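Objective 1.3, modelling of assemblies. Example input:
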Amino acid sequence: GSKQATITKFFGKA
Amino acid sequence: MLELRLVQGSLLKKVLESIKELVNDANFDCSSTGFSLQAMDSSHVALVALLLRSEGFEHYRCDRNLSMGMNLNNMAKMLKCAGNDDIITIKADDGSDTVTFMFESPTQDKISDFEMKLMDIDSEHLGIPEAEYDAIVRMPSAEFARICKDLSSIGDTVVISVTKEGVKFSTKGDIGAANIVCRQNTTVDKPDDATVIEMKEPVSLQFALRYTNFFTKATPLSSTVTISLSNELPVVVEYKIAEMGYVRFYLAPKIEE
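Predicted structure (C-alpha coordinates):
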Protein backbone atom coordinates (compact mmCIF):
# COMPACT_ATOMS: atom_id res chain seq x y z
CA GLY A 1 0.00 0.00 0.00
CA SER A 2 0.97 3.63 -0.31
CA LYS A 3 0.63 6.38 2.24
CA GLN A 4 -0.21 10.01 1.64
CA ALA A 5 2.72 12.23 2.61
CA THR A 6 2.23 15.77 3.88
CA ILE A 7 3.79 18.96 2.54
CA THR A 8 5.50 19.60 5.89
CA LYS A 9 7.55 16.43 5.37
CA PHE A 10 9.30 18.25 2.50
CA PHE A 11 9.11 21.96 3.27
CA GLY A 12 10.23 23.35 6.63
CA LYS A 13 9.29 26.55 8.40
CA ALA A 14 10.57 29.64 6.62
CA MET B 1 -2.73 52.34 4.04
CA LEU B 2 -3.23 49.89 1.27
CA GLU B 3 -4.77 50.55 -2.12
CA LEU B 4 -4.42 48.15 -5.02
CA ARG B 5 -6.24 48.83 -8.27
CA LEU B 6 -6.58 45.96 -10.68
CA VAL B 7 -8.03 46.90 -14.07
CA GLN B 8 -8.57 43.29 -15.07
CA GLY B 9 -10.68 42.48 -12.02
CA SER B 10 -11.76 39.17 -13.48
CA LEU B 11 -8.27 37.82 -12.70
CA LEU B 12 -8.89 38.17 -8.98
CA LYS B 13 -12.32 36.57 -9.32
CA LYS B 14 -10.74 33.60 -11.12
CA VAL B 15 -7.95 33.34 -8.54
CA LEU B 16 -10.48 33.04 -5.71
CA GLU B 17 -12.55 30.50 -7.60
CA SER B 18 -9.39 28.43 -8.10
CA ILE B 19 -8.35 28.23 -4.45
CA LYS B 20 -11.47 28.62 -2.30
CA GLU B 21 -12.29 24.91 -2.26
CA LEU B 22 -8.76 23.88 -1.33
CA VAL B 23 -8.12 26.42 1.42
CA ASN B 24 -10.66 27.82 3.89
CA ASP B 25 -8.80 30.70 5.52
CA ALA B 26 -5.54 32.34 4.53
CA ASN B 27 -3.40 35.39 5.13
CA PHE B 28 -2.93 37.64 2.12
CA ASP B 29 0.44 39.32 2.36
CA CYS B 30 0.97 42.69 0.85
CA SER B 31 4.44 44.13 0.28
CA SER B 32 6.26 46.23 -2.30
CA THR B 33 6.75 43.02 -4.32
CA GLY B 34 3.06 42.32 -4.66
CA PHE B 35 -0.04 40.72 -3.28
CA SER B 36 0.64 37.14 -2.28
CA LEU B 37 -0.64 34.19 -0.35
CA GLN B 38 0.76 30.91 0.88
CA ALA B 39 -1.56 28.38 2.48
CA MET B 40 -2.06 24.68 2.98
CA ASP B 41 -5.26 22.70 2.85
CA SER B 42 -6.58 21.50 6.20
CA SER B 43 -4.86 18.12 5.94
CA HIS B 44 -1.49 19.65 4.92
CA VAL B 45 -1.28 17.54 1.76
CA ALA B 46 -1.35 20.46 -0.66
CA LEU B 47 0.01 23.98 -0.57
CA VAL B 48 -1.01 26.93 -2.71
CA ALA B 49 1.29 29.84 -3.47
CA LEU B 50 -0.16 32.88 -5.21
CA LEU B 51 1.70 35.94 -6.44
CA LEU B 52 0.22 39.00 -8.12
CA ARG B 53 3.19 41.31 -8.74
CA SER B 54 2.80 44.99 -7.91
CA GLU B 55 3.69 45.97 -11.52
CA GLY B 56 0.55 44.20 -12.68
CA PHE B 57 -1.69 46.66 -10.81
CA GLU B 58 -2.61 49.99 -12.34
CA HIS B 59 -2.16 51.59 -8.94
CA TYR B 60 -0.29 49.90 -6.11
CA ARG B 61 0.08 51.57 -2.75
CA CYS B 62 1.29 49.54 0.20
CA ASP B 63 2.88 51.79 2.84
CA ARG B 64 4.06 48.93 4.99
CA ASN B 65 3.96 45.16 4.85
CA LEU B 66 0.52 43.96 5.78
CA SER B 67 -0.94 40.54 6.38
CA MET B 68 -4.70 40.24 6.10
CA GLY B 69 -6.50 37.10 7.25
CA MET B 70 -9.46 36.29 5.08
CA ASN B 71 -12.03 33.56 4.78
CA LEU B 72 -11.67 32.63 1.12
CA ASN B 73 -15.25 31.50 0.73
CA ASN B 74 -16.50 34.85 2.01
CA MET B 75 -14.02 36.72 -0.17
CA ALA B 76 -15.18 34.71 -3.20
CA LYS B 77 -18.80 35.59 -2.35
CA MET B 78 -17.94 39.27 -2.41
CA LEU B 79 -15.87 39.08 -5.59
CA LYS B 80 -18.69 37.24 -7.32
CA CYS B 81 -20.62 40.50 -7.02
CA ALA B 82 -18.07 42.20 -9.30
CA GLY B 83 -18.79 42.16 -13.01
CA ASN B 84 -16.30 40.37 -15.24
CA ASP B 85 -15.27 43.67 -16.85
CA ASP B 86 -15.13 45.58 -13.57
CA ILE B 87 -12.04 47.24 -12.16
CA ILE B 88 -11.42 45.96 -8.63
CA THR B 89 -9.69 48.01 -5.95
CA ILE B 90 -8.64 46.44 -2.65
CA LYS B 91 -8.41 48.96 0.20
CA ALA B 92 -7.44 48.68 3.85
CA ASP B 93 -6.41 51.18 6.49
CA ASP B 94 -3.55 50.42 8.89
CA GLY B 95 -4.76 48.56 11.92
CA SER B 96 -8.25 48.11 10.51
CA ASP B 97 -10.09 44.83 11.00
CA THR B 98 -11.83 45.13 7.63
CA VAL B 99 -10.87 45.19 3.98
CA THR B 100 -12.90 46.92 1.28
CA PHE B 101 -13.35 45.68 -2.26
CA MET B 102 -14.47 48.41 -4.64
CA PHE B 103 -15.90 47.50 -8.03
CA GLU B 104 -16.14 50.01 -10.88
CA SER B 105 -17.97 49.20 -14.07
CA PRO B 106 -15.93 49.94 -17.24
CA THR B 107 -18.11 52.99 -18.02
CA GLN B 108 -17.88 54.22 -14.40
CA ASP B 109 -21.67 54.35 -14.09
CA LYS B 110 -21.81 51.81 -11.28
CA ILE B 111 -19.52 51.85 -8.29
CA SER B 112 -19.93 49.38 -5.43
CA ASP B 113 -18.02 48.78 -2.29
CA PHE B 114 -18.09 45.65 -0.20
CA GLU B 115 -16.52 45.62 3.23
CA MET B 116 -15.35 42.30 4.61
CA LYS B 117 -14.31 41.45 8.14
CA LEU B 118 -10.73 40.28 8.53
CA MET B 119 -9.77 37.43 10.82
CA ASP B 120 -6.75 36.40 12.85
CA ILE B 121 -5.16 33.37 11.27
CA ASP B 122 -2.29 31.52 12.85
CA SER B 123 -0.33 30.20 9.94
CA GLU B 124 3.31 29.46 9.49
CA HIS B 125 5.12 30.30 6.29
CA LEU B 126 6.97 27.38 4.79
CA GLY B 127 10.24 27.75 2.93
CA ILE B 128 9.87 26.29 -0.51
CA PRO B 129 13.35 25.28 -1.67
CA GLU B 130 14.40 26.17 -5.21
CA ALA B 131 14.57 22.80 -6.90
CA GLU B 132 15.90 21.53 -10.20
CA TYR B 133 13.11 19.29 -11.36
CA ASP B 134 13.75 15.95 -13.09
CA ALA B 135 10.94 16.53 -15.56
CA ILE B 136 8.88 19.53 -16.61
CA VAL B 137 5.74 19.09 -18.70
CA ARG B 138 3.91 22.02 -20.25
CA MET B 139 0.55 21.22 -21.77
CA PRO B 140 -2.81 22.83 -22.50
CA SER B 141 -4.54 23.40 -19.15
CA ALA B 142 -7.88 22.18 -20.51
CA GLU B 143 -6.22 18.88 -21.53
CA PHE B 144 -4.81 18.38 -18.04
CA ALA B 145 -8.21 19.16 -16.50
CA ARG B 146 -9.88 16.65 -18.83
CA ILE B 147 -7.38 13.94 -17.92
CA CYS B 148 -7.80 14.47 -14.17
CA LYS B 149 -11.58 14.45 -14.48
CA ASP B 150 -11.65 11.35 -16.69
CA LEU B 151 -9.26 9.37 -14.49
CA SER B 152 -11.14 10.23 -11.30
CA SER B 153 -14.17 8.41 -12.67
CA ILE B 154 -12.05 5.22 -12.67
CA GLY B 155 -9.75 5.54 -9.66
CA ASP B 156 -8.71 7.68 -6.69
CA THR B 157 -5.04 8.15 -7.49
CA VAL B 158 -2.99 8.95 -10.57
CA VAL B 159 0.53 7.79 -11.34
CA ILE B 160 2.29 10.43 -13.42
CA SER B 161 5.29 8.99 -15.23
CA VAL B 162 7.60 10.88 -17.55
CA THR B 163 9.85 8.94 -19.91
CA LYS B 164 11.36 9.53 -23.34
CA GLU B 165 8.04 8.32 -24.75
CA GLY B 166 6.04 11.11 -23.16
CA VAL B 167 4.02 11.71 -20.03
CA LYS B 168 1.72 8.95 -18.86
CA PHE B 169 -1.23 9.36 -16.48
CA SER B 170 -2.45 6.04 -15.06
CA THR B 171 -5.10 4.97 -12.62
CA LYS B 172 -6.69 1.80 -11.31
CA GLY B 173 -10.02 1.24 -9.63
CA ASP B 174 -12.68 -1.33 -8.87
CA ILE B 175 -14.05 -1.27 -12.42
CA GLY B 176 -10.70 -1.40 -14.23
CA ALA B 177 -7.71 0.67 -15.20
CA ALA B 178 -6.80 3.54 -17.50
CA ASN B 179 -3.64 4.91 -19.08
CA ILE B 180 -3.40 8.18 -20.97
CA VAL B 181 -0.14 8.99 -22.74
CA CYS B 182 0.59 12.47 -24.03
CA ARG B 183 3.54 12.75 -26.37
CA GLN B 184 5.56 15.85 -26.99
CA ASN B 185 3.79 17.78 -29.72
CA THR B 186 5.14 21.11 -30.83
CA THR B 187 3.78 21.09 -34.40
CA VAL B 188 0.60 22.94 -33.51
CA ASP B 189 -0.96 26.10 -34.92
CA LYS B 190 -0.98 27.92 -31.60
CA PRO B 191 1.97 27.66 -29.16
CA ASP B 192 -0.47 27.25 -26.24
CA ASP B 193 -1.74 23.99 -27.77
CA ALA B 194 1.71 22.40 -27.58
CA THR B 195 2.78 19.68 -25.21
CA VAL B 196 6.42 20.17 -24.32
CA ILE B 197 8.35 17.70 -22.20
CA GLU B 198 11.77 18.46 -20.73
CA MET B 199 13.22 15.41 -19.03
CA LYS B 200 16.53 15.04 -17.21
CA GLU B 201 15.60 11.83 -15.41
CA PRO B 202 12.60 9.53 -15.77
CA VAL B 203 10.07 10.22 -13.03
CA SER B 204 7.14 8.29 -11.62
CA LEU B 205 5.02 9.59 -8.77
CA GLN B 206 1.60 8.81 -7.37
CA PHE B 207 -0.92 11.49 -6.35
CA ALA B 208 -4.47 11.74 -5.06
CA LEU B 209 -6.81 12.79 -7.88
CA ARG B 210 -9.04 14.58 -5.37
CA TYR B 211 -6.35 17.26 -5.13
CA THR B 212 -5.35 17.48 -8.78
CA ASN B 213 -9.05 18.04 -9.52
CA PHE B 214 -9.03 20.95 -7.05
CA PHE B 215 -6.02 22.43 -8.88
CA THR B 216 -7.78 22.34 -12.23
CA LYS B 217 -10.27 24.93 -10.92
CA ALA B 218 -7.48 27.32 -11.98
CA THR B 219 -7.87 26.35 -15.66
CA PRO B 220 -9.67 29.63 -16.58
CA LEU B 221 -6.57 31.56 -15.46
CA SER B 222 -4.26 30.20 -18.12
CA SER B 223 -4.42 28.24 -21.35
CA THR B 224 -1.35 26.26 -20.35
CA VAL B 225 -0.24 24.46 -17.21
CA THR B 226 3.27 23.50 -16.17
CA ILE B 227 3.78 20.32 -14.16
CA SER B 228 7.21 19.99 -12.52
CA LEU B 229 8.19 16.63 -11.10
CA SER B 230 11.08 15.13 -9.19
CA ASN B 231 11.11 11.70 -7.65
CA GLU B 232 10.06 11.81 -4.00
CA LEU B 233 9.23 15.52 -4.01
CA PRO B 234 5.90 17.34 -4.15
CA VAL B 235 4.73 18.02 -7.70
CA VAL B 236 4.27 21.66 -8.69
CA VAL B 237 1.29 22.48 -10.87
CA GLU B 238 1.62 26.05 -12.07
CA TYR B 239 -0.89 28.32 -13.77
CA LYS B 240 0.63 31.60 -14.94
CA ILE B 241 -1.53 34.68 -14.49
CA ALA B 242 -1.14 36.91 -17.55
CA GLU B 243 1.98 39.08 -16.98
CA MET B 244 1.16 39.36 -13.26
CA GLY B 245 2.34 36.25 -11.55
CA TYR B 246 1.11 32.78 -10.86
CA VAL B 247 -0.89 30.30 -8.83
CA ARG B 248 1.27 27.32 -7.91
CA PHE B 249 -0.12 24.21 -6.29
CA TYR B 250 2.26 21.84 -4.50
CA LEU B 251 1.03 18.33 -3.83
CA ALA B 252 2.78 15.77 -1.65
CA PRO B 253 3.06 12.36 -3.31
CA LYS B 254 1.78 9.06 -2.04
CA ILE B 255 4.72 7.08 -0.80
CA GLU B 256 5.09 3.29 -0.74
CA GLU B 257 5.11 1.94 2.79
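The two ends of chain B are 51 Å apart (CA to CA).
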